[in-house]
Amino acid sequence: ASDGIRGLRAYDPGHDLVALRHRFGAQGLLELGSNENPYGPSPRVRDVVLAALDSLHIYPDPLGGELKRALATKHGVAMDCILLGNGSHELLMQFAQVFSGPGSDVVAAQYGFSVYALAAQAAGARFVAAPALPRDHAMPRGHDLDAIAAAIAPSTRLVYLANPNNPTGTWFDRDALAGFLQRTPADVLVVIDEAYAELADAPDYASALSMLDRHPNLIITRTFSKAYALAGLRIGYAVAHPGLVAVMERVRESFNVNSVGLAAAAAALADEAYLQATSAYNARERDALADALRQRGIFVYPSQTNFLLAEFGPRSIELERELVVRGVVLRPMAGYGLAECLRISVGDAAGNKRLLQALDEVL
Ligand code: PMP
C-alpha cells in the first residue's frame, strides 16, 4: 500500500449499533449519532421498492437514466451534468483519486467533513486544512473562505467545502461563495458538498447550483441519505460541467448504484410535498431542541442541518457513555479535535423529548 493508505484508519462507528439495538429491544434505541432522518422516506418509496424486488436477478441500469433525467429537470441542467454515486461518499473519494494524487494538494477547512482528508490521503495527495473561523464568531468554527483561498497554492488541485458543514452545522452565504469562486484559479476544482442543502432554510443560505454556469470548475454533491431519508440505499449524486462528469464516468464502477436505490430515489424525488413537509418538521424540531439545550446552559452552534453541535465541556466523553447506558446514542467529536462537544442528530418530537429527559438525568 502507498504511504498515504498505510497512515489511514478504518471507519470506526463508535458503538456496535446492532448489539445495542438488540439490547434495548422493544423500548428502542434512540439513535442520534449519524444524522439520519427520523421521518423515513416518502410513502411512495415503499411500493416502488417492493416492485423492484421482482428484478433483483437483473443488473441495474448502468446509466441511471431515469433518475438522472429527473435530477436534471429538478436542477435545470442537462442530463450529462449529473453523476450518480453509491452515496455521495463514493463520489467525494473518487474526485480525489481522479483529480489529485502524489505531488498535489487538496485543501479543506479545519472542522470540515472527515471524508475529505481521507480522500486526499488515499489518493496520495497532501491534505491542507485551512484554519476555521474562531469560536466567538457568528459562525463559530465555520468555514473561513478567506483562509481557504489563502491556502490554495500552485500545487492545489482540489478544494472541498461543505455547505452547510458537518460536524459544525454552520454555513456560508451567497456573497462569500461567489467571491471565493471568483478568486479561485480556474484549474482548481471546487467541490461544494451540499449533503444537507434541502434542510437549510436560512434566508442567507444559497446553494452553489446557480453558480455552475459561470464556474466550470465547480462540482456540487448532494445525497438521498438526509432530507430524502434513504441512507440505507446509498444514493448520492454530483452536478458539474459535462466535461468533468465524462472523466468521472470513465472510472466509475459500471453498476455502482443498485436497482432498488435507483427506483427509490426517483420515487422520493417525485414527492416534493413530502420533502417540504418533513424538512419543515426538521427545522422546527432543530430550533426547539437548540433552544432547550441553550436553556440548560449548553453552548449550541448555529445549524442549518438535521444535527446540532453542542459543547458539554470536559465531561462530554463520560456523558456520552452515560447516555448510551440509557439507550441514547450521540456522536463524540474527539476525532474532529472537538473533544468537549457532542453532535446530536435532531429527532422527531418524541425522540427529542426522550433525549432531553435522559440528558437531565445525567447532567
Ligand atoms: N457529506 C457530508 C457533509 C455528510 O455529512 C455525509 C454523511 N454523513 C456525506 C457527505 C455522505 O453521505 P452519503 O454517502 O450517505 O451520501
Automatic annotation (TrEMBL):
Protein known as: Histidinol-phosphate aminotransferase
Pfam families attached to this UniProt entry: Aminotran_1_2 (PF00155)
Record carries keyword Transferase: yes
Catalysed reaction, written as an equation: L-histidinol phosphate + 2-oxoglutarate = 3-(imidazol-4-yl)-2-oxopropyl phosphate + L-glutamate
Lineage: Bacteria, Pseudomonadati, Pseudomonadota, Gammaproteobacteria, Lysobacterales
Residue span(s) of domain Aminotransferase class I/classII large: 29-359
Superkingdom of source: Bacteria
Protein source organism: Luteimonas cucumeris
Record EC number: 2.6.1.9
Record has Membrane as a keyword: no
Enzyme class: transferase
Signal peptide: none
